[in-house]
Amino acid sequence: MARAPLLQLSGIGLGFGNTPLFSGLDLVVHERDRVALVGRNGAGKSTLLRVMAGQVEPDTGARSLAPGKRVGYLEQDPDFSGFDTLGAFASADLEPGEVYLVEMVAEGLRFDLDTPVATASGGEKRRAALARLLADPPELMLLDEPTNHLDIAAIEWLEERLRDTRGAYVLISHDRRFLTELTRATLWVDRGMVRRSEQGFAGFEDWRDKVWEDEDAQRHKLDKRIKAEAHWAVEGISARRKRNQGRLRNLEALRSERRAMIRRQGIAEMALDPGDRSGKLVAEARGISRRFGDTVIVRDFSLKVLRGDRVAFVGPNGVGKTTLLRMLTGAETPDSGQVVLGTKLELAVFDQARAQLDHDASLWDNLTGDPQMRVSGAHDQVMVRGTPRHVVGYLKEFLFDESQARAPVRALSGGERARLLLARLMARQSNLLVLDEPTNDLDVETLDLLQDLLGAYEGTVLLVSHDRDFIDRVATTTVVMEGAGRATVYAGGYSDYLAQRAAGGGGDERESPGRGSRSRGASRPTGQARTQRSRSDPLTFTERHRLEVLPDEIERLEAEIARLSELLADPELYDRAPAKFDKATETLAARQKALERAEAEWMALEEKAAS
User: Taking the model in full, what pTM does it have?
Assistant: First the structure.
C-alpha cells in the first residue's frame, strides 16, 4: 500500500551571498520513512533540515506539510531562554499530567531533569532537547546529530526508541552503526543536488561509488565529443563552416554542458607524521586511584601501553574517561599509585570541546597564531611537519576554499571545525595521539580517511569515543569504565568486548573486591532480596551489575505500564484526544516489550548465577 506524503519540497532554491546551495530541489518524505541524510561537511545537510523544518525560508520554491501533521526538529544549539531547569525545557510542550513521559526519556538518555540550565553542559542541553522531542513525538522528526554527546548505552536506548516509533524521521549522524541499524532510505546532498535511494545507509557507499562511476563515464564521453567537434571546427573549410552554423552552436552547447559539470569535492589530503620513535614503553599505570569528593574515577587500576597500541576508553558520560586519559599522559596526578611515562614522547591532543580553536578568529589566524605552526617573519605561512607551507594551500588540503580562510571559525559547521582542528594536530610531528571524541560531526569520507591514517600510523593512539564502528576499526585494546572506580581491560574493539562479555569473561578486571549483587527471589522478581556473590561467581562483573539493577528497571517499567493503562482506561480519551490515545498505545506496547526483555534477561542471569 502506498504511503501518504508527509512533507514535500518543490523547486527549492537557496543561496548565501554569491554561493548557491540548492537549485530546483524536489523531495518528498512519506509516512513511516526512516531516512539517512548524508553528504560532505559544508554540503548543506543541516540547512536542508532547517528548510524541511520551516526554520529557513528558501529563495525560491515551496514547502508543504500534510494537514494536521507536525514536524519536530532537533537542532544542534537549542535555545533555553526562559527556562530554569532542563526538566522545565523538556516538558514545556506537555500537559501537567504527562510529565512522566519526559521522566521516562530522561532516564533512557541519562540526564537529571533538575539540572539548572545555567550550569548544564552542552551535552546535557542536547539530551534535554532530544527528550523534549521524544516525549511528545510528532509525525516527522528531523534529527541533526542526535548521538553527539551520548554515551554508548544512551545511543543503544535511542536506537531502540526510534526503531519502535510509528512516526517518520530523517537523520543526520556521523555514527555509521546508528544509521545502518535505523534507516531504510538515503538522501544524499552532493554539489547542490539531493539524490534519493530506496535503501538504507548500509548500501550508501556502493550506491555513491556507482553514481561517481557513471558520472566519470559520462564526462569522458562528453570530452571525446567536444574534442571531435573542436577538431572539425578548426580543420573544416570556411564554406563548410558557414553551412554548418548548427554544429558550431552545438559545440558551444557541449562546452557549456561541460562547464556546468560541477567538480566533485575531493578527499582531504590528511597525513600523520610520527616523527622520532618513542621508547617501547609509552605509559604504565601501576595501581592508580583517583577520586573527586565522593566520586571514585578509578580504583587500583593498572595498564601497560606499548608503542603502536591503539587503546579505546569507553563508558557512560561523566565516568572519568578523560580524567584517566590525562593521568596516563601525565597531565594529572593520581591520588595513589604511579604512572610511568616512556621516553621520547611527542604528544598531540584532539580535544572534544574544540577548546584549542579561537571561534572568533579566522581560520588563517587560528593556524598562524599556533606557536607550534608559526613561521618566524612570515605571516602567510605555517610550519607543517617541519616544512613551511602557505596558509591557503594547507587549508585546501583539508577541503577549505580560499574564501573561507579569512572567515571566522564560528561560521563553520561542526564537521568543518573538526577538520580545522585536525589540520592543526596533523601539522606537527607526534608519536602519541590523544583523541577525545574525534568522530563528532565528521563526514563518512573523512572518517574513512582518519581510520586509514590511524591504521598506518607508527605511533601510539589513546582514544575516547562512543562511536562503536570507529572503535572496532581502530582499537586493539578497549578499556571499559563502568563507574564506582571499576575499569576492565579487553582485547580488541567494542564488538570484541561484547563477545568476551557474552562468553563470560575475557576481560582483565581492575576493581575493588567485595562487590555485592542484588537479585530477586524465586520465579518472579519481587524487589527485596539481596545476595552477596563471591569472587567465584560465574557471572562477569557487567552481568552481576545488570542483575543488580534489573529489579529496579522492572519496577519502573511496571509503574509506567500501570500509568499508561490507567490513561487508556478513559473511554472518552480517543474521541477527546486521538493523537494522545495513539501515542499512549504505542508507548504502552513498547514498555510491555521492554518489560518482557528485562524479565527474560533477569531469569537468564539468575539461572547462570545459580549454576
Answer: 0.71
